[in-house]
Amino acid sequence: MGQSAVSRRDFLKVSSTAGAGLMIGVFLPAKERLVAAGLAPAQPFEPNAFLAISPDNAVTITVAKSEMGQHVRTSIPMIVADELGADWSQIQVAQADAHPDKYGSQGTGGSGSIRRSFEMLRKAGAAAREMLLEAGAREWGVSKSECAVSKGTVVHRSSGRELTFGALASKAAALPVPDDPPLKDPKDFNLIGKSMPGKDTPSRVNGSAQFGIDIRLPDMLHATVVRCPTFGGKAKSFNSKAAKGVSGVTDIFEIEEGVAVVGKNTWAVIQGHRAANIQWDHGDFAKWDSDRIKSMMEKKGGGTAVVAREEGNVAEAHKKAGSVFEAQYEVPFTHHATMEPMNCVAHVRNGECEIWVPTQVPQRVQTTAAEHLGIPVEKVRVHVTLLGGGFGRRLWADFVTDAVEISQKTGKPVKMLWTREEDMAHDFYRPTSIHKLSAAMTKKNRPRSWSHRVVAPSISGQLRPERFSGGQLDRSAVNGASNIPYEFPSILVDYVMTNTKVPVGWWRSVYNSQNAFANEGFIDELAHMAGMNPLRFRMTLLRNSPRHLGVLQLAFEKSGWNTKLGEGRGRGFAMHESFGSWVANVAEVTVKSDGTFTVDRIVSAIDCGLAVHPDGIRMQMESSIIYGLTSTLKGEITIKRGAVEQSNFHEFELLRIDETPEMEIHIVESDEPPGGAGEPGLPPVAPAVANAIFDATGKRIRKLPIRPEDLRA
Amino acid sequence: MARYSLTINGKKQSVNVPDDIPLLWVLRDELGLTGTKFGCGRGLCGSCTIHLDGESTRACMTPVEYADGSEITTIEGLSPDLSHPLQKAWLAEEVPQCGYCQSGQIMTAASLLEQNSNPSDEDIDVAMKMNLCRCGTYQRIRKAIHRAAKEV
Ligand code: FES
Ligand code: FES
Questions:
Q1: Rounded to two decimals, what is the model's pTM?
Q2: Which of A3, A89, A314, A480 could be disulfide-bonded to A492 (CB atoms 3.0-4.6 Å)?
Q3: Nearest to B125 among A213, A626, A658 (CB)
Q4: CATH at B6
């Protein structure tokens, strides 16, 4: 079955309602059929646009992905509009409500909004364009091939007659949808590849942007929820009278996950919570802290592991080797820290529920609320607001049930907001990890083997323990480790699952962040042992990886790798492939004798295939560098008595403007299909900095975050 | 509870609220001026920055009684039409990512430019380093402040 067979039946649907003009949707074909057609072997197929042209010539593109700073509400419309032949000024953007299947998956993650839907979005625009051309041709009684689209009009070339899309919209809507519309020659793109200004930028500089926290409904109550700080604990008692004594507090009650305080404004409920003096039954996990987690991981890490990749015979190579070199790398838990704390507005009434929420998973919100209330999903409406950051935190709907439960209980619309303290105490943290690496080297210091054991809690294992009860591999946990590009005669990558009650989740770039730190640090160590330039050393192991070599080369050139650096300064390199893109970073640092150091400059090269929205890519790369540097230099989550020790930004610090290095982003020119941009820049940040510190000081960094104490001479 | 009178973005307003309620919640919950954001509630992030009698101030740490009779400017009052040099520069440099911290960033930068019409990189660091941005827009903030400074 070819693609057109699929597209005819599933891909495009057209509807025309009187006066509504032309509406073309891109729909998710049934997964089974896609798989049968060879179109969706590994990744979910995630088309997500909906386009409508009204008689007044407005083109509305509905974006079903969540906008959390990646400018997806600019780049998705660019793709559709380009194929359509619309004028950018006529494009209006609408945000899709959650729908079980109308838009395919609305989940926004995996740096996938563009790369997983590029072709589908183009076809959506192209099909509408073909129909408009046909409508114009019929209007003038000419052949379609004599007509062209230009800036929102259909033009008859020889006569110069023209009609706007709006004027043709209802006629076009009556036409059959083309089976397989022709796509533009990429050299004719006039929006794709351009840095169009962000559609949401004006609202983000005058205070009018609407985040979840900004939703206001008539008669709305405010609420905050406090959970037991110790994971798995429960409320024992609270002083309900004292809480209600706070002016503005109307109620306090226990909900499934903690205690809810309800009132007339946010301040009242925060005060109410303080007055309530909640006592907790901390439960078993109170016996755990970071040290105990670490020793459990060390112990388990020495035991049996599940093999993720095995080539050749590593044990044999170790036996024969001139020397076996070993090292252990360690990465802590860390926190998403979106600037907008978790919040949700819900209104439950008459067997229905309406929700306004900053979420990366509108459909999960819908099903979660429906299940919670025991009502059908069609009875749950979910409006997606702008997100004040996502980074993977908002792939969870845990805070949604808080709001739903409180609204159900009070019978009123409720804005539920977590304080910063609550947000920090109840994240799904980036898993902590230990990496045991070893390599056999010949007498001439050529590597003969590579082995990497990843010891870490498993996100999937925590979510669905039954899937791993037979010792199955969690593939995600070895992402970036098992697919290491370097060529060795023998390779062994395996994994040990070490779950605790600390919730773990998808943190920007997921396991790539830990695994790349280990890979790229250790490979740098091997280069040093081999007495080779670390870039040249990598090149000798990358004979079949042209795109790795491409970014390596670009970063080498742009960073001025061979130029001399002054006293106390160092330069480090790291590279990594993830989410369909290749990134190489060169970091420059200055280390003082007291161990304090600065990251002065990061030069980054990315190959993400065709760059759809270049400035958006640069932004995401800059963002990934800063986010990655925070976890390299600062933000660490530690556990004490079964709870997170850090409570707010004085204890969980973020990188600041005065610590921001000079960043240069270089994008490889490419016409390969688009890759991801939101995450791939992050994994090679920490190892590039660690390698730069080695260059400056001779001290090998194998543990994050890097502290000045570790560098003291 | 008491009645307080505030002049917000040039408009006289009166609110009946508890004495200790921070201005942040008066603005957001009582008056519906939601451009000023809540990030930490403890003076640690700068998302709630406003101008109180011309000085950049953390609204989350300012009890309403302290602000009684004051003139307040919030992001909504910076300009009616995106014409403030900083807003223009923010647009030109495409500074915002998620945008959540940007009201606070711009209000802090506006105070800086009022005191120093041509800030150096160091001046920018000193003025802006208490404003956190998890999306990491700092490099563009710096560029945009320099750009706006050229215009004022
Ligand atoms: S909310 Fe006021 S400084 Fe963070
Ligand atoms: S733009 Fe997202 S926190 Fe600053």
A1: 0.94
A2: A314
A3: A658
A4: 3.10.20.30
